[in-house]
């Protein structure tokens, strides 16, 4: 199977498995796991933040950030199709007790003036704005890169109002590799950052959240409350170290493969592209082929290609380290066949 459903399907490399085997471990709830500590130091360093913390998933990392920054009864500004709003089971409401104020972005990019207008004035009727969330790359916008200048503008506005900014950077390293902008520069426009080790970077499990020392110290308690305090977590942090040290630059290959896929599919009448590839995600519209996303996905599966339906007439393809150029060419052929057989 050529699995293009998500970059989360990547399997740990032999090096990662060996590192897990060899990892020196301790009880991380006591902050005694040297491998976790090493990973957290490296991650904080890379992002230019004071401290970082290893968490089991991106979702938990985002939710810890929201609950750490906010108080119950506040409102948070989120992009309308952001993962935090769209894909996290309303945890912001269930756990943090905040309500979302959504802003429709353009390719995932919010207009700074719209963000400014959405910030609540001091009024007895209003919730306070407790947090502004950004997402880079933006998943549902097709792996779109949010420009650094946009983030800077929003951060300036946030600072003028004393509101913290959280970045859902599940794929921040994809943005960095594609744009040539250091992750530090993106992180500098935020008070906290979450990024995934378990997506394109290829680690089996885990995410990082990073921020000021005070933020992480408070977040550590929330992680424990959420059940995310892990014991000999060095076993899974060790592959994360390899991911951060050796798997970043190769994301460029995934981006080249996504472009190869896009170019191939643009030549096929019957499918149209819903986004221009910027990183490793491509949304393909199947309506002209007379097939729903679901049906198209089924058709592809019968030809050995997996891609997730992502809307009534949409299929999503994500490239990653376990798919090479030759397999991309086979995937293009499979799409051609599915369109042809209809
Ligand atoms: C995948 C993803 C997450 C969540 O990560 P999990 O580890 O799957 O919980 C958060 N935000 C974005 C933008 C993502 O793509």
The general outline is: globular
* CATH architecture heading of the largest domain: 3-Layer(aba) Sandwich
Q: Estimate the strand proportion.
A: 15-25%
Supply the number of structural domains: 2
The biggest sheet amounts to: 7 strands, mixed
The SS-based structural class is alpha/beta
Radius of gyration: 20 Å
Distance between the termini: 22 Å
H-E string: EHHEHEHHEHEHEHHEEHHHEEHEEEH
CATH level-4 homologous superfamily of the largest domain: Type I PLP-dependent aspartate aminotransferase-like (Major domain)
Low-pLDDT segments, ≥5 res = none
What percentage of residues falls in helices of 4 or more residues? 40-55%
Under CATH, the topology of the largest domain can be stated as Aspartate Aminotransferase, domain 2
The number of helical runs is 14
- The top-level CATH class of the largest domain is Alpha Beta
Task: Write down how many β-strands occur, each being a DSSP E stretch of 2 or more residues.
Answer: 13
Strand order of the largest sheet: 2-8-7-6-5-3-4
Summarize this structure as a short list of keywords or feature phrases.
342 residues; Aspartate Aminotransferase, domain 2; globular; PyrdxlP-dep_Trfase_major; 14 helices; four-stranded antiparallel sheet; alpha/beta; Aspartate Aminotransferase, domain 1; binds pyridoxal-5'-phosphate; 16% strand; seven-stranded mixed sheet
Structure write-up:
The chain is an alpha/beta fold and 342 residues long. Helices cover 43% and strands 16% of the residues. The chain has 14 helices and 13 strands. It has helices spanning 14-22, 34-47, 58-69, 83-86, 91-96, 112-118, 148-160, 172-179, 183-187, 213-225, 234-246, 251-266, 293-301, 325-341; strands spanning 2-3, 51-55, 75-79, 99-103, 129-135, 165-168, 192-196, 207-211, 272-273, 281-285, 305-306, 308-311, 314-318. The strands form 3 sheets. The chain has a 7-stranded mixed β-sheet with strand order 2-8-7-6-5-3-4, sandwiched between helices. A hairpin with a 2-residue loop joins strand 12 and strand 13 (314-318). Helix 1 (14-22) packs across helix 11 and helix 2 packs parallel to helix 11. The longest helix is centred in the C-terminal third of the chain and has 17 residues, at 325-341. The chain is globular and about 60 Å long. The protein starts with a strand and ends with a helix. The model has no long low-confidence stretch (mean pLDDT 98). Bound molecules: pyridoxal-5'-phosphate (PLP). Pyridoxal-5'-phosphate (PLP) binds next to helix 3. It holds the Pfam family Beta_elim_lyase.
């Amino acid at each position: 199977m050529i699995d293009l459903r998500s970059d989360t399907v990547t399997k740990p490399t032999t090096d990662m498995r060996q590192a897990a085997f060899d990892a020196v471990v301790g009880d991380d709830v006591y902050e005694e796991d040297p491998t976790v500590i090493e990973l957290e130091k490296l991650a904080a360093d890379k992002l230019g933040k004071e401290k970082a913390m290893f968490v089991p998933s991106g979702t938990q990392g985002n939710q810890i950030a929201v609950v750490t920054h906010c108080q119950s009864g506040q409102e948070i500004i989120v992009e309308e199709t952001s993962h935090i709003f769209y894909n996290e089971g309303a945890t912001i409401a269930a756990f943090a007790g905040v309500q979302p104020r959504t802003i429709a972005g353009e390719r995932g990019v919010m207009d700074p003036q719209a963000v400014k207008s959405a910030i609540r004035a001091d009024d007895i009727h209003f919730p306070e704005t407790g947090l502004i969330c950004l997402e880079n790359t933006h998943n549902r916008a097709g792996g779109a890169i949010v420009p650094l200048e946009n983030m800077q503008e929003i951060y300036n506005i946030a600072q003028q109002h004393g509101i913290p900014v959280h970045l859902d950077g599940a794929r921040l390293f994809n943005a960095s590799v594609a744009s040539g902008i250091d992750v530090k520069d993106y992180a500098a426009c935020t008070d906290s950052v979450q990024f995934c080790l378990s997506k394109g970077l290829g680690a089996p499990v885990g995410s990082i959240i990073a921020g000021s020392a005070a933020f992480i110290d408070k977040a550590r308690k929330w992680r424990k409350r959420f059940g995310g305090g892990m014991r000999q977590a060095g076993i899974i942090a060790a592959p994360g170290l390899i991911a951060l040290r050796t798997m970043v630059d190769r994301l460029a290959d995934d981006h080249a493969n996504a472009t190869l896929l896009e170019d191939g599919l643009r030549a096929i009448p019957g499918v149209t592209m819903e986004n221009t590839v910027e990183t490793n995600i491509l949304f393909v519209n199947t309506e002209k082929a007379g097939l729903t996303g679901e049906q198209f996905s089924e058709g592809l599966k019968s030809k050995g290609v997996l891609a997730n339906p992502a809307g009534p007439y949409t299929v999503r393809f994500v490239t990653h380290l376990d798919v090479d150029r030759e397999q991309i060419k086979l995937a293009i052929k499979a799409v051609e066949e599915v369109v042809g057989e209809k």
